[in-house]
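Task: complex structure prediction.
Instruction: return structure tokens for all chains below.
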Amino acid sequence: MRTTRIANVTTETPTVKSFMFNDRLCSEAKPGQFIMIWIPGLDEVPMSLAMLNPKRNQAAVTVGRVGEATNALHKMKTGDTIGIRGPFGKGYTLTNARKIMIVGGGTGLASLTPLTEKLAERKTEITFLMGAKTKNHLLFHTRIAEILTSVKGKSIVTTEDGSHGQKGLVTTQVDKLLKQGQKFNMIYACGPEKMMQKMLILAERSNTPFEASLERFMRCAIGICGTCTIGKYRVCQDGPVFSGRQLREVKDEFGRWRRGLDGREIPV
Amino acid sequence: MTNRLTTEITGLRLPNPTILAAGILGLSTPTLQEAIRQGAGAVVTKSTSLKPQLGYPNPTIVQINNHSLLNAMGLPNPGAKHFAKEITKLKKTQPKAPIIASVFGYTPNEYAQTAQILTKAGADAIELNVSCPHVKKTGSEIGQNPNLVSKVVKTVKSTIKKPVIVKLTPNVADITEIATSAVKAGANAITAINTVRAMTIDTETRKPILANKIGGLSGPAIKPIAVRCVYEIHETVKAPIIGCGGITTWQDAVEFMLAGASAVQIGTAIASKGLGIFRSIAEGIDTYMHNKGFRSINEIVGLSHRH
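Output:
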């Protein structure tokens, strides 16, 4: 455990804030890796890194307000102290593939944004699809658009209420693209698990390599406590990013249930 | 690996003397199966109680220096009835390694009922957790009192037929007194040791880091304490001893055997070395035995006591 001070707080949406801090190890993390953030005296929660800036030793996490710990984090200000462990886990595989599809929903955009930045450093073509409940919940949609200007890329936005972009679910648009016969060499996804489960099926149907990042309750983050296991895999060590093949192996759990803090199943 | 690694502890036949320690991953069939597939000679499940328990809020674990860990999980578990299903599933896969169910309770009867549910489900033996140092009214609060240990062991022994192993706490003035009391009450084997009661405080925020403030230290930092405990117990009781505490290399495992352990449990080292550690330690012990001309594990157990 090491401590650092929050260097900057950005309000992204009415329910999401980003917290930037100085930390060399975090700034050098791979896209898709996560850290444990200690809110002193309250809780410690896993968060994926949403911004990586090794030149300035800076990194950031993007946090949705979902419970006691994230509420407390949302109240923290520049200069407040947080504890950090990590980075942990396996990030996304940085593919050399030519045509890439990236699909994000909700705060799942957090880990996909540094991934997109890294991929955009290469000669590649990126189709980015993002979904949100409403226009107000759209996350990083301008940041993604900026990143995509450096490559051959396009972004497709969906909102469930139709207040921005296409109305409906992001997977409907993915299905449409694939049915039109568009071919991709790699698909990445991060977001609600039901969405990722649908994405796995779509990726398999179109025979496209697939990676998705999972979220689970975590305690140790170093692969021994068993809290975050899915099948034989430990999300904190073997994940949080898993391949389509691995997710197929754990299909009885993936998209269906996760382990609660006492180890019993909770539907996702 | 060769036959000289097979070992028998209170009727349990282990293909090699490395055992997955309680509290490490053992919450589900697939993770226990994976530990066995990767070479564990036996597995101990996460400690289970009669009713489900959520455990403490995070932080529940802090890394200390060179791969030692301070934890206060608070014994989270899904409860005996729920966990029985996992044990039954695991048993059906016909694992090559014995399944030892770790059990705790708040009364002797709770220990016994939980042990009964889990042995009926297929557990080959029970390890009584009378040594967790950070949950009130159970664990080491029982294990520090020889009379309470005796009561719990007797109640469990009169309820189940399968072997009963008692895991001891080092947080006592004289561990041999507790070991003696456990064996007199009928314990078939002793595991030594559980974590050492400990804490850590963050200097910046001036707050204890663990949500529970106090937890248990495991890993290389406690190995010499554990070796001493095994040595002392071996001098005092005849029951087989399973050594536990900071085992990270095959040399550590051999050291515990020389002190008097017939097998060793591995936990914390899995964080740094992964599950492959079981096979690599077993192979190391095998090579050591070959080089020194030992033909069975029994030949090394307690050998340091001759000096």
